[in-house]
Amino acid sequence: MKILKSTVLACAIAFASCSKDDKEDDQTSQPSAKAGEITYTLDGLTISGTGGGYNWEDTTYFVKHEDGLKQLSIYINGNTEGTYSVGSHTFERNKGFFAYYPDNQTAYEATSGEVKLSKIDGKKVTGTFSGTLTNSKDGSTMKLENGGFNAVTVSSW
Which domain of life is it from (predicted)? Predict the structure, then answer.
């Protein structure tokens, strides 16, 4: 019986001394997209592909993903790494905005969310994003989750 108690005690101590891997926390703020790509989940459907964008006068970043007529556009009215809150048509300084266009007749615009610019490296930007999009015609909503863009090239405009 002493051996059983000792074994149980040793196992309890071993499990209690385990700690969470710090690398796990680092990965949650990093995009899952490959270099040059954007990935996101829109109402449960994961979408990924090549990203591109522009940098206006070193003050505003615009990152997008296009697939035929479908387009996701992300605007960040700021030029420093950090978190930008997102809202409907928010083009204020240090704010963000995103919209999804499933076709050339329909727009889903951000009503809430955030964009995190985690790295600005010359002509490449990296970050994450999430939020809620609302259809401007009928008020229906879409959930935008797990968004990330990784080393997406932005051209000066």
Answer: Bacteria
